[in-house]
TrEMBL record:
Protein name as it appears in the record: Uncharacterized protein
Basic residues composition-biased segments: 786-799
Positions with biased composition (Basic and acidic residues): 585-594
Region (Disordered): 573-597, 773-799
Length: 799
């Protein structure tokens, strides 16, 4: 589901068949090694006489977009083919060992073939990962394979302005700067200066050559090529060759170039460049280099520069230090050292928590209720109910623990735990045991902490902040949780069912796992707090968790905004949970069966990427911000409720947005019908719409009143009916809306608790002659739909 090019599949039958009879991991790897050796030998022959830097720049031109607009990306473009070719070239003894004069080489003619071979190797490497995962039998094996595949194939994991903000907050501090100078030999500002200078130099050279050749073509467009003066031909040739045929000279960066463009001294520029560079070295065969790369030992992730040893550097990626600066820095810090602890306690953890809280405050429209707070949690073997408000055994039964943030919005609590630790390199290479250990220490630990306070709130309706202070949370009716991680974890966070199966997340309502970057994106494009509540419900407390898979959280979020992240609930389970709901229908069962299928979500972020890069696109481009796909009048109603902030607004907005397009239209039609009736007969009209599901039983009571009836009187009348009907249905929440005769919302009320045995309400239901519950409303007979047929009016029971 999403943007997908079928050509990317290549020849899956013939590429997968060799793995069919593999019985061991060694068998699987032998197949990959054989294909690597075959294709690498061909690649070596194709580029034997070429300058390595010419080949690499031509590959970059083939794989990377020349502009930030994702719509201009080359078909099938990716970083991995560039890295595979670079690995082959680095196995040479030098940049150009072949004696053929450079001007006589034609590397541009083999770029298409290089792309095809490298892309095929990438696919076979992915099949190798899946085959090993299948043989492993570990609960996390499939997830580990997908994660390793994401690490192998996906680059530029973050949008530039968000990544730069996070790097600035993490590394442009006195503590970080001091540690970087000590362990890397340069600071964050030095790296930023080098990166900016490289971009500036490359862009200036490309633009100059493009303009020079373009101007010559325009100036002589009316001449036959045979009539062009020799000096014009020579001038054009001197521009077009380095532009698109032999581009090494324009792509090379030197420390002197960086110094001139940035103002850094040459020694510092050289130190930064060398820290990201690899040298030519023929002590290791090209086949082994490529095989190791495809097995997960990819040196280009941290060192994307190639150096010829004469202070000439060529880039294999878009920029240096993208997505990996924090990993490089943390790898340089000695494990368990005082420097590592200082960095973690003074920088990594506090910055991560502050950023996460700021983003969630923006998303939810309210500051955190508690930040960096302490509370009492039950000791091992002690149940949550022993820590109720009347507990007198706190000293014996509880320990003081810490939580990162708690948001309380209306009657909803959102628990937040933030983890700054990175996934180890071994886990990124597919080591399932190490991956499980790292996930247990990050996602698992965060989930355990979030579940602990959730159970306390749901069980005791509050928590002890210390042994003498009780925090009353009795007004909370719904509790959701989030674990935010600093690392970009891709499929490790999207596929919650796998984490549950491995025992890392709770089976019931696991937390939503988000990277700090993805949380920042949601904060930037999300428009309504209720949207996020619905997203929490869909991602963690619905069949979406079971049936949807993705490599990136933002792909799921974009499907959500498109109203296409949904599995129809099992109507029989709904009826079992809510006996007062209407009986299940054949149509509902069929809808559930048709939607409850495995769905792999691919790239859905083209529009999002265009929006996030809008400042780099032409000003006349009309870039549309991604937004929630719902009926315009429903969005207007949700916004009206949100702005008023009356009780119930938060959950009500999520409930409204959760409705199908058909359900939203039905609700709007009901409002309009009541208003039309009031305008016609000048009397009070009301209606009820009920929605039972996995997240409870929500009911909407609405009424329209004429001008001579006050809002207060209409509200009292509707409230009386609502309390009786809500009790009869045993609905956990009821929203009341009062409209004027024109359908304009004037007032609301909210009932978020329901009695289970109330004789007074039982008598009221009998007096009001309410329709029995658990029955489907009969269809209107055909005669009632024909204008020529009149049916005798009967007094109808209220619904």
């Amino acid at each position: 589901m999403g943007d997908f090019d079928p050509e990317m599949l290549g020849d899956p039958v013939n590429e997968l068949l060799p793995f069919r009879n593999c019985n061991t991991v060694s068998d699987v790897r032998a197949i990959l090694r054989e294909r690597v050796e075959e294709d690498v030998a061909a690649i070596v022959d194709m580029v034997a006489d070429a300058d390595a830097f010419d080949v690499i720049e031509l590959m970059r031109m083939r794989e990377f977009s020349i502009a930030p607009d994702p719509r201009l990306a080359p078909p099938g473009g990716a970083s991995l083919p560039v890295e595979i070719v670079a690995a082959v070239l680095l196995a040479r003894p030098s940049r150009k060992p072949d004696p053929t004069p450079r001007e006589d080489t034609r590397p541009h003619e083999v770029i298409s073939d290089l792309h095809e071979r490298c892309t095929r190797l990438g696919r076979i490497a992915s099949y190798r990962q899946l085959a090993e995962g299948h043989l492993s039998g570990e609960p996390l094996s499939r997830l580990a394979s997908e994660y390793q595949g994401a690490v192998l194939n996906i680059r530029n994991l973050q949008y530039d302005h968000i990544r730069d903000e996070h790097d600035h907050r993490l590394f442009d501090k006195s503590t970080s700067s001091e540690l970087m100078q000590t362990h890397l030999g340069y600071g964050y500002r030095d790296l930023s200066a080098v990166r900016s200078a490289m971009n500036e130099i490359s862009a200036e050279r490309m633009t100059r050559l493009r303009d020079e050749t373009g101007n010559l073509m325009i100036a002589h467009q009316n001449l036959d090529p045979k009539d062009l003066p020799r000096e014009v031909i020579e001038q054009f040739t001197s521009g077009i060759i380095p532009l698109i045929f032999l581009p090494a000279d324009r792509s090379i960066i030197t420390p002197a170039d960086i110094s001139g463009a940035s103002g850094l001294n040459i020694a510092t520029a050289k130190k930064v460049l060398n820290s990201f560079a690899q040298q030519f070295d023929d002590s290791e065969s090209p086949g082994k280099r490529v095989f190791d790369l495809l097995m997960g030992n990819n040196p280009f992730l941290a060192r994307p520069l190639m150096s010829d040893g004469d202070e000439n550097f060529a880039l294999t990626s878009n920029e240096i230090g993208i997505d990996v600066l924090r990993r490089i820095f943390e790898r340089a810090l000695p494990p368990n050292s005082s420097d590592m602890r200082r960095y973690d306690q003074k920088v990594r953890q506090p910055v991560s928590e502050e950023l996460a809280n700021n983003y969630l405050s923006t998303i939810l429209g309210t500051p955190a209720f508690r930040e960096g707070y302490h509370y009492l949690a039950p000791k091992s073997g002690v149940s949550a109910d022993e820590l109720g408000p009347d507990s007198v055994t706190l000293r014996q039964s509880a320990n003081e623990v810490e939580g990162d943030a708690l948001f309380v919005i209306d009657d909803v609590a959102v628990i937040v735990e933030v983890k700054g630790k990175s996934i180890a390199d071994q886990a990124r290479r597919g080591d399932v045991r190490r991956l499980k250990r790292d996930l247990k220490a990050t996602l698992g630990d965060g989930a355990r902490q979030a579940t602990r306070i959730r159970e306390l709130i749901e069980t005791n309706h509050g928590v002890w902040e210390n042994k003498t202070t009780w925090l009353d949370l009795s007004g909370v009716r719904e509790v959701r949780s989030i674990v935010v991680v600093l690392d970009d974890i891709g499929p490790l966070g999207t596929n919650l069912a796998d984490l549950q199966h491995a025992g890392l997340l709770p089976e019931d309502r696991p937390p939503l796992v988000l990277s700090l970057h993805d949380l920042a994106v949601i904060a930037e494009i999300g428009e309504r707090p209720s949207e996020f509540l619905l997203y929490l419900r869909r991602r963690t407390d619905s069949l979406v968790t079971t049936y949807y898979r993705a490599l990136d959280e933002l792909d799921l979020y974009m499907r959500f905004l498109a109203a296409d992240l949904y599995i129809a609930e099992d109507p029989d389970k709904v009826r079992s949970a809510h006996p007062t709901a209407p009986p299940s229908s054949k149509r509902e069962r069929s809808r559930h069966e048709q939607s409850a299928v495995g769905t792999m979500v691919s790239d859905n972020c083209v529009e999002l990427t265009a929006w996030m890069n809008r400042d780099k696109l032409p000003q006349d481009e009309d870039i549309v911000k991604p937004s929630m796909n719902a009926q315009a009048e429903i969005l207007k109603l949700v916004d009206q409720l949100s702005n008023a902030r009356n009780p119930g607004w938060f959950r009500c907005g999520a409930d409204l947005l959760a409705l199908s397009g058909e359900g939203q239209l039905h609700l709007l039609s009901t409002i309009k019908k009541c208003a039309r009736s009031t305008r016609k007969d000048s009397i009070y009209h009301d209606a009820i719409v009920a929605y039972a599901g996995q997240w409870g039983f929500a009911t909407i009571f609405l009424a329209t009143h004429p001008t001579d009836t006050s809002v207060t009187k209409a509200k009292e009348r509707l409230q009386s009916y609502s309390k009786a009907k809500q009790y009869q249905l045993q609905a956990d929440r009821a929203y009341g809306w009062i409209f004027d005769k024109n359908g304009s919302l004037e007032d609301t009320f909210y009932l978020n608790s329901v009695a289970h045995n109330d004789p007074a309400l039982d008598r009221l239901i009998a007096d009001m002659k309410l329709q029995p519950v658990g029955q489907r409303i009969p269809p209107i007979p055909p005669s009632a739909r024909r204008a020529t047929k009149r049916v005798k009016k009967k007094k109808r029971k209220r619904r």
